[in-house]
């Protein structure tokens, strides 16, 4: 009897074993299908522009909306996960992504493409990606860091394969049929979601406790209705206001932004950086084609970026985790952003294919540093118990500049008829953001050291100092957070 009970307990704990590795494989595929997908949009830029007689600015709204919604839909996805679970969110996202791309193949104007491929596919990708990463926290405890690192390789695989597949299908059957096929491919997110079956935890999870906490309120409401009474209207209105404020506080932590100087500097810097970060991914292929590079070779440039990312990103993550860089990761991040900005000048010097390959190699190395450090630095400047809410505001702000950056640059290219301004623009935003973050954190660190030297007591010292936020490792019996925002750069 005792052996049967032990076996039942083991079966009820699926973390770090068995089916968890199938879930990890599904997460790798999900990240390639969702985060890797926008990398191929530049391949269709010239064809869409020609078919719809659209300007550079009008055409660039399509990928901008897709990427902005993918990054900024985090709070909505988290509400969906908390309400219906990760499996439902992933499968709903796959359905939306597929429907969005199938609908895009029938679009008759560029504005229709904004709704179908931009909004619907972007939102579906957001649901699938973020819920897929969240479920890894339930299936992995001991190997959670390794699982997340392995899952992130899916992004690099997507960057490598999507452009090559896109160019082949575009040459063979045109962009409409290609989008139709893409809709079928993205429906595989539903298959990945089906693999991510709910975890039966032995201890009470936060999801279970939140549901149990809601039960008394529901029972009391039911009792009031059965007695023929209803709450006072003013009390109902006050309750709704309180609930709304609590939800904003939970998912969009404006109080952290106002009080934590490190978080304030970092959020402003990354938001400004995103104005120029996505520009090379959208305009590199049309820039190369305009300068005489064959279409197939131009599509290969994006694949080179993804291929190098597969090897460099894990190495960068391991390097930044060394104790030498403890408390100094923000400076590594600023250096990576600076290198990313400086690399754009290579494109201005020459548009030869061999020179563009060198550019892609340097850009990929810089991007690997940015991707590996973005959320690690955020964990350094924000207490872990408020990380989810801080990340919610962070992703919404960066998605705003991701949305408006490419169209504004496209407008500049339309006015000047010179693609060089794409890379000038990108360099300006990246270099200025890198200098702002590096110098601001250096000044903040000196200010804190001078305060320590003068022994002036601070009301809440940890809120204003950039330092390493230690976190307690979770035990196997403790379930991970129910709601987690994750994005990738």
Nutshell version of this structure?
The chain has 489 residues and is mainly alpha-helical.
Description:
With 489 residues, this protein is mainly alpha-helical. It folds into 2 domains: 16-200, MFS general substrate transporter like domains (Growth Hormone, Chain: A), CATH 1.20.1250; 253-449, MFS general substrate transporter like domains (Growth Hormone, Chain: A), CATH 1.20.1250. 79% of the residues lie in helices and 0% in strands. It has 20 helices and no strands. It has helices at 2-11, 19-34, 41-51, 56-72, 74-84, 86-104, 110-139, 144-186, 188-195, 206-226, 233-251, 254-259, 261-277, 279-290, 295-320, 329-349, 353-381, 387-416, 420-454, 461-464. Helix 3 (41-51) packs parallel to helix 8, helix 6 runs antiparallel to helix 7 and helix 13 packs parallel to helix 18. The longest helix has 43 residues, at 144-186. It is globular and about 65 Å long. It starts with a helix and ends in a 25-residue tail after the last helix. The relative contact order is 0.14. The model is unreliable at 1-12, 202-228, 461-466 and 468-488 (pLDDT under 50). It is a multi-pass membrane protein. InterPro entries: MFS, MFS_dom, MFS_trans_sf, Proton-linked_MCT. Residues 20-450 form the Major facilitator superfamily (MFS) profile domain. Keywords: Membrane, Transmembrane, Transmembrane helix. GO terms for molecular function: monocarboxylic acid transmembrane transporter activity.
């Amino acid at each position: 009897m005792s052996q049967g009970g032990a076996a039942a307990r083991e079966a009820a704990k699926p973390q770090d074993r068995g089916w968890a590795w199938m879930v990890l494989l599904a997460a790798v595929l999900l990240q390639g299908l969702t985060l890797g997908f926008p990398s191929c949009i530049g391949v269709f830029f010239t064809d869409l522009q020609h078919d719809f007689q659209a300007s550079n600015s009008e055409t660039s709204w399509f990928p901008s909306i897709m990427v902005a919604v993918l990054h900024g839909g985090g709070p909505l996805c988290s509400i969906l996960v908390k309400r219906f679970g990760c499996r439902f969110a992933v499968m709903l996202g796959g359905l939306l992504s597929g429907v969005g791309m199938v609908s895009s193949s029938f679009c008759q104007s560029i504005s229709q493409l904004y709704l179908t491929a931009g909004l619907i596919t972007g939102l579906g990708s957001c649901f699938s990606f973020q819920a897929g990463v969240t479920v890894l926290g339930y299936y992995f405890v001991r190997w959670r860091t390794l699982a997340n690192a392995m899952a992130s390789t899916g992004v690099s695989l997507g960057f490598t394969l999507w452009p090559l597949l896109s160019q082949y299908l575009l040459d063979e059957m045109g962009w409409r049929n290609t989008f139709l096929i893409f809709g079928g491919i993205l429906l595989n997110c539903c298959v990945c979601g089906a693999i991510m079956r709910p975890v039966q935890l032995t201890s009470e999870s936060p999801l279970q406790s939140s549901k149990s906490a809601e039960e008394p309120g529901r029972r009391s409401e039911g009792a009031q209705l059965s007695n023929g009474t209803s709450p006072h209207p003013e009390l109902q209105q006050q309750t709704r206001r309180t609930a709304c404020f609590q939800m904003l506080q939970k998912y969009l932590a404006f109080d952290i932004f106002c009080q934590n100087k490190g978080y304030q500097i970092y959020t402003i810097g990354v938001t400004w950086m995103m104005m120029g970060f996505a520009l090379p991914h959208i305009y590199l292929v049309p820039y190369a084609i305009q300068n005489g590079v064959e279409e197939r070779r131009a599509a290969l440039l994006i694949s080179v970026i993804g291929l190098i990312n597969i090897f460099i990103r894990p190495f960068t993550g391991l390097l930044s985790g060394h104790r030498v860089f403890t408390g100094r990761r923000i400076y590594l991040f600023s250096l990576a952003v600076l290198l990313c900005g400086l690399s754009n000048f290579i494109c201005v010097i020459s548009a030869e294919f061999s020179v563009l390959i060198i550019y892609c190699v340097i850009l990929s190395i810089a991007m690997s540093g940015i991707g590996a450090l973005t959320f690690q630095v955020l964990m350094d400047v924000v207490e872990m118990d408020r990380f989810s809410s801080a990340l919610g505001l962070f992703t919404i702000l960066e998605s705003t500049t991701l949305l408006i950056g490419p169209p504004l640059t496209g407008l500049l290219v339309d006015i000047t008829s010179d693609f060089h301004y794409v890379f000038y623009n990108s360099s300006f935003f990246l270099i200025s953001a890198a200098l702002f973050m590096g110098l601001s954190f250096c000044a903040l660190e000196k200010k804190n050291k001078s305060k320590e030297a003068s022994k002036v007591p601070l009301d809440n010292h940890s809120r204003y100092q950039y330092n390493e936020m230690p976190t307690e490792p979770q035990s196997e019996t403790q379930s991970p957070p129910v709601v987690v925002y994750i994005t990738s750069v």
